[in-house]
From TrEMBL:
Keyword Transit peptide listed: yes
Gene3D superfamilies in the record: Acyl-CoA dehydrogenase/oxidase, N-terminal domain, Butyryl-CoA Dehydrogenase, subunit A, domain 2, Butyryl-CoA Dehydrogenase, subunit A, domain 3
Keywords assigned by UniProt, alphabetized: FAD, Fatty acid metabolism, Flavoprotein, Lipid metabolism, Oxidoreductase, Transit peptide
Classification lineage: Eukaryota, Metazoa, Chordata, Craniata, Vertebrata
The protein's name: Probable acyl-CoA dehydrogenase 6
Ranges of residues in domain Acyl-CoA dehydrogenase/oxidase C-terminal: 254-400
Gene name as annotated: LOC100221885
Protein family membership: Belongs to the acyl-CoA dehydrogenase family.
Statement: the UniProt record of this protein carries the keyword Acetylation: no
Pathway assigned in UniProt: Lipid metabolism; mitochondrial fatty acid beta-oxidation
Amino acid sequence: MALRAGGRWARPGSALRGRCSGPRRAGDAPRHRHLREALRKIIDKEINPFVDKWEEEGQFPAHKVFKILGQAGFLGVDKPTEYGGMGLDFSYNIAVAEELGNVRCGGIPMAIGVQAGMATPALTRFGSHELKKQFLVPTIAGDFVACLGISEDGAGSDVANIKTTAVRKGDEYVINGGKMWITSGSQADWMCLLANTSKGPPHQNKSLICLPMNLPGIHVAKKIDKLGMRSSDTAQIFFEDVRVPCKNLIGEEGKGFTYQMLQFQEERLWGVATALTPMETIIQETIDYTGQRKVFGQPVLHNQTVHFRLAELATEVELLRSLLHRAVALYVEGNDVTKFASMAKLKAGRLTREVTDSCLQFWGGMGFTNEVLVSRFYRDLRLMSIGGGTDETMLSIICKYMDILPRK
Ligand SMILES: Cc1cc2nc3c(=O)[nH]c(=O)nc-3n(C[C@H](O)[C@H](O)[C@H](O)COP(=O)(O)OP(=O)(O)OC[C@H]3O[C@@H](n4cnc5c(N)ncnc54)[C@H](O)[C@@H]3O)c2cc1C
């Protein structure tokens, strides 16, 4: 591994040595800089040159890309060293997410997010040593592709209403039902599955289970054709009498809903972090384009309505970054940041739409083509308002924490 564990970032002679040569970005903490610099090299060499091709093909090769990232340590930045992680705190994971925003599409950072920060937090925190050796170690190394199976055809926002069951028979669970919208679903080696393991109350009858995806009875029904995030495969999956050992249960039976709500905190913070850099890139590319594109004898950028708007949007991005970093700092200290994570996710959903919409307009007809990044992010970042909980779900959570929801 190029990156070292236990708070030391680089072995002598590794790719991480040397100073960051790029300009200092806002929010780019000095302690994160070497990590980001090393990741940027991988993005520029191993990912960005192929993004257009993978977007066109509708899928990126997850095993190949994850192996490269895994070998360099980027899939286990905040995971324990005992399981191949770097043992750094969660703020380093967020620095990685911000840097991944330099990938010239949204689909690949999203799939990396599922691998490194959405399918694995509960396993890391509550899973048995054996389970971690079997699933976490190869996921951190990039040998396994992981997916997260929460949403269903009839239950997205309403997670408590999922119908998939895992019924105990001897020392096995027998799983029936199906999952919808599963990122990396058609390439995954295992799924962190949320299923009903009893008929009890909906918040106490669910469990998280590590489900190998090569078991008999698992059918990948279709790859979903989507508006954006085109290089990330999104699958619908059915389970028919799938048998999995009970030892694949993560933590305690019946605690799955609670574990998943905790897992969502990291997912949401990660999602916000990956959206910051694309917004800045789009604003900058719009400045560059409108600065040279002349209309009625002057650059488009020279109209006050244009440069004021761009300045306004850049300010909003910085505000979002501040909220994110505040939430992350509190999280690293061990606080429950559900409210702040939800606020940041809500704001990111709104702001990504505003930034991409305003910028696309300034490109005129060019903005409507597939040749410019702004149109790709106009589609991809739309998911910020949907995936991992919609804007309305975020508002409901914030209201709950403000104690202003009507009493039932
Ligand atoms: C590209 C993509 C990738 C995804 N990846 C994954 C994945 O890897 N794993 C996974 O489990 N899921 C995944 N999802 C699913 C995602 O989390 C859900 O789409 C999301 O939670 C919303 O659920 P839903 O689509 O069922 O919408 P619904 O729950 O049907 O919501 C419909 C509408 O109702 C609104 N609504 C909800 N509650 C309220 C309320 N209280 N008041 C007013 N309006 C409300 C919603 O905001 C929305 O506008 C993915 C989705 C997409 C599109």
